[in-house]
Design brief:
The structure holds three protein chains of three kinds. Chain A is α/β, with parallel strands linked by helices. Helices cover 44% and strands 17% of the residues of chain A. In chain A, strands 4, 7, 8, 9 and 10 form a five-stranded mixed sheet that branches. The longest helix of chain A is centred in the N-terminal third of the chain and has 24 residues, at 2-25. Chain A is globular, with a radius of gyration of 23 Å. Chain A starts with a helix and ends with a helix. Chain B is 79% helix and 0% strand. By secondary structure, chain B is mainly alpha-helical. Chain B has twelve helices and no strands. In chain B, helix 2 (47-54) packs across helix 12. Chain B has one domain (52-273): Orthogonal Bundle (MetI-like fold), CATH 1.10.3720.10. Chain B has helices at residues 7-29, 47-54, 56-88, 92-102, 104-107, 110-128, 134-159, 162-170, 175-204, 207-212, 220-226, 234-273. By secondary structure, chain C is mainly alpha-helical. Chain C has one domain (48-269): Orthogonal Bundle (MetI-like fold), CATH 1.10.3720. Chain C has helices at 8-29, 40-43, 49-79, 82-93, 100-111, 116-123, 135-158, 163-171, 176-204, 209-213, 221-230, 236-269. In chain C, helix 3 (49-79) packs across helix 9. Chain C is globular, with a radius of gyration of 22 Å. Chain C starts with 7 loop residues before the first helix and ends with a helix. Classes of the chains: A alpha/beta, B mainly alpha, C mainly alpha. At the B-C interface, helix 1, helix 3, helix 4, helix 5 and helix 6 of B face helix 1, helix 3, helix 4, helix 5 and helix 7 of C. Chain A: It holds the Pfam family SBP_bac_8. Chain A: Spermidine binds at residues 40, 88. Chain A: Its main location: periplasm. Chain A: One of its GO terms (cellular component) is periplasmic space.
């Protein structure tokens, strides 16, 4: 027994040493691409297809939000080739010179992307990103628990629903709703407007059951809460478990997000990254990913084809009308002072 | 301490185990739910298990988690035991500050440990030419595991009769013999607890791994946390259930083998006596 | 060769992987985003006093409950047959091998107003309890996640308490309670102190639990520090400063506790 133990210890030490060396020596070869994406945001079966088509091996890792991804990029040391941040984070990365310009001659499928999703405010020259998925934030509510017809953000501030309201648990999204409710722009840098939005959230706090992110799924499905803001694509999966739920795009307008593929500065496999982005822009892959995530692909043909397979209500949620889209605002990066104000207001709200 | 436990203490123990296992039972049950919901039961399915085995990302992150946790726990146990014995034999003037420093990874918020270790690895890597990866992940895990081993071993050392070690050395034992024959057997329960706790800490860690694993490996916790914006897939419940059942079966086998061994020893003893 | 030399490799390891990161944190804490020396991060600490107080209070409550529940469990385990002991001990730890997030989400489903616990209570005719989104739920979550780290060290010490000491006390006419108070508890104190360190210290900086079970309306220190690194503004300088202050306060608490604990131990020896 004792011998076995010492042997095990020696073996482990050796293995650890080897593992350490291997990790040290392993510089990525030309046949790889390191992809960094949101969790549960891709149909992973497409990696095998990509490897078969191009012979390039995909190393796939995931993050939970833009800020976690940013913190890792900022701390350095990691060598990603493709990252998929959202709009405002892309403009931040561009501003901080953390992205490579894409060589679109390697991405012929980019022509399939709807022009609506090119050269948007977060990447005005369109040189740094290729849109991957999009969608809008809306109000999701339980029609059994709230018989009224809700059409505006006011539903989240209505004392009638006290204790049944869920609110976003991050400063940007929560304050954006208050800004929209007050008729201000979501990208405002005006300190007074932000303070007014904060005051509105402060008034709302006693009515709020909980500040949540993905707990929204559980709480809406089980009827624990009655009304919450969340993303259109996620509403589609919630409805599978609770058919009483309804999605509305509020009349004041709402936030539209675009998640797009970028190549971080100094990527070791830039060419492979562009080949991967090209692959992701193709119609077939877009269809698969749309089916897996229930989010909306900016590939025009794929979107049209997918919409035909859906019932009218789901199609209207996933592919909002131009009228709704015209009232949507996309986040861009804000100046550091404004971001600090966001964080300060948020701490103030929560203490 | 020979008295049989009272029935009230048995009831208490059962209640505690209900408390410990209620959420586990729930998460196992929902690994068989036909929708992705964690609260609404929509019907029975094995689908998540089937999908799990096709999910290379989850399976490879499970593999990373198990290897890193086992290696980190074993290495930290050996290193932490040595360190604890050494620290215990120091004068208090040195011991207290060193123990305080040793506890820093426990005290510090995980994210701060993670970020600062990442910065350290990046600057070391620039000089020594390595990248973040399995190696740095392992070093990080060993670093935050060792204090837990020390915390588990230290009370046993405090309990250990100092005279025992002195007596052994007076009787001509070398320090190694004193160490191997006297100290280690006495503190074994602490060592084993330390190893179990270290393994548990490793398997559960998310933040420190997140900042030290680099762009090619990912632990299971990292995979799970990254799913949170889109809701954690029931495949994760399935993989946790399998892990749980596997450990439970291992425990039963070990228990069963020990019963047989004990019986054999008893039989042999009775033969000798007759 | 002296036994104390065994600690030397670890001291080296600590210097590289524990002390250096702390120096990095300190460097962040005393600079601003421009990289110049500045104490502006520490100046903001006043805004966070309520967060500090709340976090320490909840951590203390959780630790006390862990001792109250964990000590008897360890004591009962130590009295079981040795073979059963090991299995029960593993069974105490096994739930912690399921992912922390999954466990906490499961608690959310159990404690919710429409959750399992309340459905169970109403089924047997008892009134429902509104515990989710309160500090009480956060404490339950903390106790659940840290209880095994109290049970294990206490058990490992109790199991080896010299039976002759207890018998001697019995011979001297001490009752059960007196034996526990005067013999068993003081002798198990090193285990309890380790347990407190493993429960209280991580509980102060824990995050996610308050978000999932506390309804996210009151921040704890762990959440506050996390927000500096993963919030909108990305302010590692402020995050490091908060973490640094927290570290100092926790160390102070530990120092006081150990001083008190060492006093107790010596009292026993005398």
């Amino acid at each position: 027994m004792k011998k076995a133990f010492s042997f095990a210890v020696a073996a482990v030490m050796l293995a650890a040493l080897l593992a350490g060396c291997a990790a040290g020596g392993g510089k990525t070869s030309s046949g790889e691409v390191n992809v960094y994406n949101w969790g549960e945001y891709i149909d992973e079966s497409i990696f095998a297809d990509f490897e078969k088509q191009t012979g390039i091996k995909v190393n796939y890792t995931t993050f939970s939000d833009n800020e976690s991804m940013y913190a890792v990029l900022k701390t350095g040391g990691s060598s990603y080739d493709v990252i998929i941040p959202s709009d405002y984070m892309i403009s931040r990365l561009i501003a901080e010179n953390m992205l490579e310009k894409l060589d679109f001659s390697n991405i012929p499928n980019y022509s399939q992307i709807d022009d609506k999703y090119k050269k948007l405010d977060y990447d005005p020259t369109g040189e740094y990103s290729a849109a991957y998925m999009t969608g809008i934030v809306g109000l999701i509510y339980n029609t059994k628990m709230i018989p009224d017809d809700i059409t505006s953000w006011s539903g989240l501030f209505d004392s009638k629903y006290a204790g049944k309201i869920l609110m976003f648990d991050n400063s940007r999204d929560a304050l954006a709703i208050a800004l929209l409710r007050l008729g201000y722009a979501v990208n405002t840098t005006n300190a007074d407007e932000l303070n007014a939005a904060y005051d509105l959230l402060r008034q709302q706090k006693p009515l709020v059951q909980a500040y949540v992110m993905d707990q929204i799924f559980d709480k809406l499905e089980s009827g624990e809460a009655a009304i919450a803001p969340y993303y259109a694509g996620d509403y589609v999966t919630m409805k599978e478990s609770n058919p009483d739920l309804k999605f509305v795009a509020p009349s004041e307008g709402t936030n539209q997000f675009v998640d797009a593929m970028c190549v971080p500065k100094g990527a070791a496999n830039k060419k492979n990254a562009e080949l991967f982005i090209n692959f992701m822009c193709s119609k077939d892959v877009s269809l698969k990913n749309m089916e897996y995530t229930s989010y909306t692909s900016p590939n025009k043909d794929a979107a049209d084809e997918y919409a035909k397979t859906l019932d009218a209500e789901t199609a209207a949620v996933m592919f909002p009308s131009d009228d709704i889209l015209s009232r949507c605002q996309i986040y861009v990066n804000l100046p550091q002072d404004t971001l600090r104000q966001y964080d300060d207001l948020w701490v103030k709200l929560k203490s | 301490m020979k008295k049989r436990p009272l029935p009230t203490s048995r009831i208490f123990l059962v209640l505690i185990f209900i408390f410990l296992y209620a959420p586990i039972a729930l998460l196992i049950a929902f690994s068989f739910n036909s929708t992705k919901s964690r609260t609404v039961w929509s019907g029975f399915t094995f689908d998540w298990y089937r999908q799990l085995f096709q999910d290379s990302a989850i399976m490879s992150s499970l593999w990373t988690t198990l290897t890193v946790s086992i290696f980190a726990a074993l290495i930290a146990t050996v290193a932490g035991t040595f360190a604890a014995i050494g620290l215990n034999n120091m004068r208090r003037r040195w011991q207290s500050p060193l123990l305080a420093v040793s506890n820093i990874p426990v005290i510090n918020a995980d994210i701060v440990t993670g970020v600062s270790l990442c910065l350290l690895f990046v600057s070391l890597g620039a000089v020594l030419k390595f990248e973040l990866g399995f190696g740095t992940l392992l070093i990080a895990h060993i670093t935050f595991n060792i204090p837990y081993v020390i915390l588990s071993v230290m009370p046993k050392l405090r309990q250990l009769d100092k005279n025992l070690v002195d007596a052994a050395q007076d009787l001509g034992c070398t320090w190694f013999q004193a160490f191997y024959k006297v100290i280690i057997p006495e503190i074994m329960p602490g060592i084993i607890n330390g190893m179990i706790i270290a393994f548990t800490m490793s398997i559960d860690d998310f933040v420190i791994s997140y900042f030290t694993a680099g762009s090619q490996v990912q632990t299971l916790s990292m995979t799970i946390y990254s799913m949170t914006r889109r809701r954690i897939s029931p495949k994760i419940n399935a993989v946790s259930t399998l892990l749980f059942v596997f450990v439970l079966i291992m425990l039963l086998i070990i228990n069963f083998r020990e019963v047989r061994q004990e019986e054999r020893v008893k039989k042999q003893n009775s033969h000798h006596h007759s | 060769m002296k036994l104390r030399t065994l600690a030397i490799p670890y001291v080296g390891w600590m210097a590289l992987f524990v002390v250096t990161p702390v120096v990095i944190i300190l460097a962040y804490a005393v600079t601003n985003s421009g990289g110049a020396f500045s104490l502006e991060s520490f100046a903001k600490m006043g805004d966070y006093i309520s967060v500090f107080i709340r976090s320490f209070l909840l951590a203390v409550i959780s630790t006390v409950i862990c001792i109250i529940i964990g000590y008897p469990v360890a004591y009962i385990l130590a009295k079981e047959r040795p073979r059963l002991q090991r299995i029960l001990l593993m069974l105490v730890m096994l739930p912690m091998w399921m992912n922390f997030l999954l466990r906490t989400y499961a608690w959310m489903s159990i404690l919710e107003n429409t959750g399992l616990l309340n459905r169970l209570l109403t089924a047997v005719g008892l009134p429902a309890v509104g515990i989710i989104n309160t500090p009480g739920a956060v404490v339950i979550g903390m106790v659940y996640n840290f209880l095994p780290f109290m049970i294990l060290p206490v058990y490992s010490v109790i199991v080896k308490i010299d039976r002759s000491l207890i018998e001697a006390a019995q011979d001297l006419g001490a009752g059960g309670l007196t034996i526990f108070r005067k013999v068993i508890f003081p002798l198990s104190l090193p285990g309890v102190l380790s347990g407190i360190t493993m429960v209280f210290v991580p509980a102060v900086s824990t995050f996610v639990i308050s978000q999932l079970l506390g309804g996210g309306s009151n921040m704890l220190l762990g959440d506050l520090i996390e927000m500096q690194f993963l919030g909108t503004a990305y302010n590692p300088h402020l995050g490091s400063a908060i973490a640094f202050v927290m570290m100092i306060v926790v160390m102070l608490c530990m120092w006081l506790m150990n001083k008190f604990g060492a006093g107790e131990e010596q009292a026993v020896m005398l």
